């Protein structure tokens, strides 16, 4: 019963967004579009999803191993992959993006890295993804002739936020001494100050990977490849349903999905994804019925991929789904 209030905002938001997204939808037409899907394109889309997952694990591993001096203490690619898939499955099934805590706990337990450090690398990866998507989509909008005014204004505002966030990541390691000095001057217990300072040091350590030119170049290159792969997968899924989705529009769609996943949501982002589909794809000539059919198939592929790899990941590193829930709660307490 104590968990019910946490679900109320997500359920209300999902219901409201579903109402606006599904108004006037002809479900017979939606069913016909999905039934006529070309399976070879869907299979190719699943392959791209798998490839993107593997690339994401390789990219996260760059951050995780940024502080490892001994090769024996480095996180292996298989461990990073299974933790990544388990975390993504947790994001689909658990509230408040608890999957980030799940993969943090799994890696920390497997490697001996501190939870704060691992969580910082996971958060840093997510932040850099958001920054990259915003910048990519802003560039993509420049190539689109007919674009809604609200989309142009939103892209401009988000681009400013992305630049500010990137600047903060770049400057934080150089101003942490000033922050530490400020913390020690605050009228709070000394034990709490030391705890905050230690957490800050772990956060700085997790972000320093972005200040190494070689690691950052590798991370940035993988980010470009990852989102290009995901965009290709979105185009292939659209092609399977007989829809013509241009690369810039597919990238805008993925950007909207990625940013909307930060909102309170029900498992699988039901409601949010439907609203994003009709809102983003509508101005580019994709009607409501095919947009809903498209996003349903996109969500089905996400679920199929996450279950196919996430369940083995939980078993290999965590033991069971109930253990995953316990890990998320323990990580949250820590």
Features:
334 residues; mainly alpha; globular
Protein model, in words:
The chain is built from 13 helices and no strands. With 334 residues, the protein is mainly α. It has one domain. The longest helix is centred in the middle third of the chain and has 37 residues, at 149-185. It is globular, with a radius of gyration of 21 Å. 39% of the residues are buried.
SSE blueprint:
Elements: H1 4-22, H2 27-35, H3 39-64, H4 77-93, H5 99-111, H6 115-142, H7 149-185, H8 190-207, H9 213-240, H10 247-260, H11 272-281, H12 288-317, H13 321-333
Helix pairs in contact: 1-11, 2-12, 3-4, 3-6, 3-9, 4-5, 4-12, 5-6, 5-13, 6-7, 6-8, 6-10, 7-8, 9-10, 10-11, 11-12
Return Rg in Å: 21 Å
Mean pLDDT: 84
**Major sheet, described briefly?**
none
* Ends distance: 23 Å
**SSE class:** mainly alpha
Q: Any idea what the shape is?
A: globular
Low-pLDDT runs: none
Task: Produce a short descriptive summary.
By secondary structure, this protein is mostly helical. It has helices spanning 4-22, 27-35, 39-64, 77-93, 99-111, 115-142, 149-185, 190-207, 213-240, 247-260, 272-281, 288-317, 321-333.
């Amino acid at each position: 019963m104590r968990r019910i209030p946490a679900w109320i905002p997500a359920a209300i938001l999902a219901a409201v967004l579903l109402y606006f997204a599904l108004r006037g939808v002809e479900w017979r037409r939606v069913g016909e579009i999905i039934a006529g899907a070309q399976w070879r394109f869907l299979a190719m889309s699943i392959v791209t999803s798998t490839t993107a997952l593997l690339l994401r694990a390789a990219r996260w591993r760059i951050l995780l191993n940024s502080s490892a001096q001994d090769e024996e203490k480095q996180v292996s690619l298989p461990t990073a992959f299974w933790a990544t898939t388990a975390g993504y499955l947790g994001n689909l099934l658990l509230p408040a993006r608890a999957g980030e805590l799940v993969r943090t706990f799994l890696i920390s337990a497997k490697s001996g890295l501190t939870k704060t450090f691992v969580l910082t690398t996971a958060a840093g990866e997510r932040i850099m993804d958001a920054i990259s998507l915003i910048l990519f989509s802003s560039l993509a909008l420049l190539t689109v002739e007919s674009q809604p005014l609200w989309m142009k204004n939103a892209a401009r505002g988000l681009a400013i936020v992305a630049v500010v966030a990137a600047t903060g990541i770049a400057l934080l390691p150089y101003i942490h001494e000033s922050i530490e000095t400020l913390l020690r001057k605050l009228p709070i217990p000394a034990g709490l100050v030391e705890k905050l300072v230690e957490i800050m040091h772990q956060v700085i350590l997790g972000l320093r990977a972005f200040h190494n030119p070689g690691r950052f170049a590798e991370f940035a290159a993988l980010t470009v490849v990852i989102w290009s792969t995901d965009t290709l997968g979105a185009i292939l899924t659209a092609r399977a349903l007989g829809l013509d989705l241009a690369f810039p529009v597919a990238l805008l769609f993925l950007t909207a999905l990625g940013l909307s996943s930060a909102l309170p949501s029900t498992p699988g982002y039901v409601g949010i994804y439907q609203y994003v589909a009709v809102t983003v794809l509508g101005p580019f000539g994709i009607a409501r019925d095919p947009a809903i059919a498209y996003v349903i198939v996109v969500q089905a592929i996400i679920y199929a991929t996450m279950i196919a790899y996430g369940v083995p990941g939980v078993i290999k590193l965590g033991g069971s789904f109930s253990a995953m829930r316990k890990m998320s709660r323990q990580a949250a307490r820590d």
